[in-house]
Amino acid sequence: MTTLPIGLLLGALVCFIVFLVRAEAQPFGEQCLDSFEKGREDFVLDTDDSVKYGATFIIKPKVESTNDCIRSCCKDPKCNVAFMENGSGEGMIKSCFLFDCLYKQQYVCRFVRKKGFLNYIRDVVYESDLATKNLPGEVDNPPEANGGPDRVVQPQESLTLNGNESKDDHDIVTYQWHLVSGNTSAVIEVENIDTFSFLVS
Length: 201
Description:
- This protein is α+β, with helices and mostly antiparallel strands.
- It has 2 domains: 21-134, 3-Layer(bba) Sandwich (Hepatocyte Growth Factor), CATH 3.50.4.10; 140-201, no CATH class.
- The protein contains 4 helices and 12 strands, in the order αββαβαββββββαβββ.
- It has helices at residues 6-34, 47-52, 66-74, 123-126; strands spanning 36-38, 43-45, 56-59, 81-86, 93-100, 102-103, 106-107, 111-113, 117-122, 158-162, 187-192, 195-199.
- The strands form 4 sheets. The protein has a 5-stranded antiparallel sheet.
- Strand 6 (102-103) and strand 7 (106-107) form a beta hairpin.
- Residues 7-27 have low confidence and may be disordered.
């Protein structure tokens, strides 16, 4: 019977283990990237609305590339949405944010238009129709006007309202101010496109 030197057997075993490690590591990176669908560009997660409806912020990993941001999401089984701010070079990013956008089996994340951002959604969520209604750019939702909290003023006092908390899933083109109820003798003066003042007589 032929015998092999122990050193030769150990060397072959080490080479086999290294081969297995490399074979497993490479598919993880590739499979990870393949398991995400790219969303619409120039849309960012509306974090306030998303969290209000049940989305969970996971982490902001310190990575510098799109692929590394996605890989960070792959490492967390709860992560299904990664959104990031574009960097100066191709494939480079300024920041990366990971979210769990499922709450009670419902996709609860909302997106708004903002230049310079991109997002990736895990394909099992993207393809399951859970995200269909809220995919960025799929629908044009009505804008949400917000002139600030209710205010109480006395006669001869002036008041300035600001609409910069208003939002839309597309760009806000213009603001229109109207007195819909109350004292019709109030004098309205538009200061800027998103602010106006009025004097209560």
